[in-house]
Fold:
Amino acid sequence: MQLAMDWHRSRALAIWTRVMALAAVVAFPLTMASPARSAPIRVRDARGKLFVASAPPKRIVSVAPANTEILFALGLGPRVVGVTDYCDYPPQARKLPKVGGVQLNYERILSLRPDMILATVNLQAGAIARMDALHLPVFAIDPHTVAETIGAIQLVGRATGTEQAAHAVARRMRATLAGIRRPPPGKRLRVLNIIQLQPLIVAGPGTFMDDCIRLAGGVNVAADAKAPYPTFSVEEAVLRKPQVILTAKRNLAALRSSPVWRTVPAVANGHIYSPDPDLLERPGPRVVDGVALLAGILRRAAAAPKAHVAGARGALLAPRKPA
Structure:
């Protein structure tokens, strides 16, 4: 009997020893892999400048609203220590320390001890040069289209150690674009995006809105202009017969009351809209929602009866509030 008990004890001890040995083998790679999460960062930004850090950044300053949205979408909100006066989405960003607006407060930025400053080349070339001169850790992106925005998000993911999150955001954005219902090919409407009414400045080729209009299934009537934001004469805009006008709310009354503008199909048929500019003009994760919103506008306008009544009032799409 005693021999049997001893045999069972020996057997149990042998099994336990093997289990512990296997656990050690399994755990060993995990232990060895853990430093990879703090591996050095070496990524070239949109300027081609090499950004080097010993570990993923932990104190990030965003100097553009779209960049702030990107950082939060990647789950980096807790690491953001400073934003601009205009960074209002997501709501948590409003509570963060401010580093200025159009003019950045460089002393304030220095005081926050950032290990990354996320900037935008096409909007902040002068500010970037100044921060480079101060030897601040600038990482710059430069998206001009929706596709480039997705690429910029993935680039930020590589520079911050959040590649998996960036890939997930990119997949969601591409899926949203793929699921957009656009007007039928034969009903693609002519769209005019008015930036400023007097003098008349519109969105031309190579602009973010030009790309959004195309992705939504519209045709930018200023796509053949010689500048990204050309100055048009009213006569020229009228001759192009836009069927949909996108503009700020402040311009609506002037467009509807003008005898000249009332001859334009968009005004005569009431297709003047003011969609939320934060969705369509910020190169961040929500831009695909803006494209979907614009596609809906174009579908409804294409299906609506053409009354051609001068001075017809258009439906105004109220700006969406930050969620």
